[in-house]
Specification:
CATH superfamily of the largest domain: Aldolase class I
Strand content: 15-25%
Strand order of the largest sheet: 1-2-3-4-7-8-9-10-11-12
CATH architecture of the largest domain: Alpha-Beta Barrel
Low-confidence stretches: 2-6, 363-373
Helix content: 25-40%
Number of helices: 11
Number of domains: 2
Largest sheet: 10 strands, mixed
Structural class: alpha/beta
Radius of gyration: 21 Å
CATH topology of the largest domain: TIM Barrel
Length: 373
């Protein structure tokens, strides 16, 4: 990974600290122990963006906190809105990198004609090192992992901008969550704490390209979130072309880890499957996918391929095309006839390059530094 600009002189963020850590912070500053609970409430339940807003805390404690700590390390640079209601948010980190998050309203509506779900797609890295041929983020390479605070601030700031509570979260944005496992799980611990009123565990999904050791670790640690596997191909030959990580962790190893995960957690898994014209959309692919889906209780999210020409792809990426509507529908129908639970992922946000696989920002710390920004 590239080294970001030094930010050692910047105050650390309080966002991401748990109850015990906040008690230490307050004690160090001479505050009464019970003030730590107040601070925690203002950080997470009330989503305070300034220490001055934390009225119940003594002025001296607020001043001491403001002198030593930060409440936000991400700066919202831009927001785009799609015709379908999807919103994409561009954030800049304190060391000059840009990352994106997406707010996706569900198509289903409640009695007040409001979306039943408001899902945030969260990034976990600046860029991604895996090089998946169908993903625009891969063209950025990888710069660094996001910190716990940067992960959580995406949630807090998107919710603030939206003006309404988020209901679901997917770690499906920029980056591979399993390569930032510790920070992602620390963020999860804050997110699912009932006192924080952020996101319930049952409504959080982590998507991975397939890291067997981390999948087993997720199971062994009893993390109460959902797991999704980016599958996309059903032979090692094709999957290795599309997803180079398969050369290190072939299908057999990944699927054995999925078996282990279900055996330990008894939680169904989700397989994500993008359909590519002439590559993975045949009747034989239906049969192979159905066999995999029956290994453990699961469902398959079938996803249209969203072209990434805007990101300047090269190599095998140039050979990828969406399967036809007729073939797409026939593939879905055959899977259902085979007894597979199937969900069709919408193309929400496609018109603003916010659909699945389309996140790729064009400016990084290096380009900003070169231009003198």
């Amino acid at each position: 990974m590239h080294s970001p600009r030094s930010n050692s002189s910047l105050p650390p963020s309080l966002v991401g600290l748990g109850s015990a850590e906040l008690r230490e912070v307050v004690a160090t500053l001479g505050g009464e122990p019970w003030r730590a609970r107040q601070l925690e409430e203002w950080l997470y339940k009330h989503r305070a963006s300034a220490f001055e807003a934390m009225g119940p805390l003594p002025a001296a404690l607020r001043a001491a906190l403001a002198e030593r700590y930060a409440l936000r390390t991400l700066h919202l640079l831009d927001e785009q809105s799609s015709a379908d209601g999807t919103r994409k948010f561009l954030f800049r980190t304190r060391d000059g990198y840009n990352v994106e998050s997406v707010l996706i309203p569900s198509e289903a509506r409640d009695d007040q004609d409001e979306p039943k779900r408001r899902t945030i797609c969260v990034s976990t890295q600046v860029g991604c090192p895996l090089g998946c041929a169908f993903c625009a983020t891969a063209t950025m390479k990888v710069k660094r992992n996001l910190t716990v605070s940067e992960i959580l601030e995406q949630v807090i700031e998107v919710e603030r901008a939206a003006g309404e509570r988020l209901t679901n979260l997917v770690f499906m944005g920029m980056g591979e969550p399993m390569l930032n496992y510790d920070n992602v799980m620390r963020a999860v611990e804050v997110l699912i704490d009932p006192a924080h009123e952020l996101i319930p565990a049952r409504r959080i999904t982590l998507s991975t390209s397939g890291f067997p050791d981390e999948i087993r670790r997720l199971a062994d640690e009893g993390r109460p979130i959902k797991l999704a596997l980016s599958l996309h191909a059903l032979t090692d030959t094709l999957r290795s072309r599309l997803m180079p990580i398969n050369r290190r962790y072939p299908l057999r190893a990944v699927l054995e880890a999925i078996d282990y995960y279900y055996g330990r957690t008894r939680r169904p898994v989700t397989y994500e499957y993008i359909l590519f014209d002439g590559l993975n959309d045949t009747p034989e692919d239906v049969r192979r996918l159905a066999r995999i889906a029956r290994r453990v209780p699961s469902r398959v999210n079938v996803i249209p391929f969203h072209p990434i020409d805007f990101a300047g792809p090269t190599g095998v990426a140039l050979e990828l095309h969406p399967t036809s509507t007729e073939t797409f529908d026939r593939f879905i129908g055959a899977l259902r006839e085979a007894g597979v639970q199937v969900m069709v992922r919408s193309s929400s946000g496609k018109d603003i390059d916010a659909a699945c696989g389309q996140l790729a920002v064009r400016h990084t710390a290096e380009s900003l530094h070169a231009s003198g920004s």
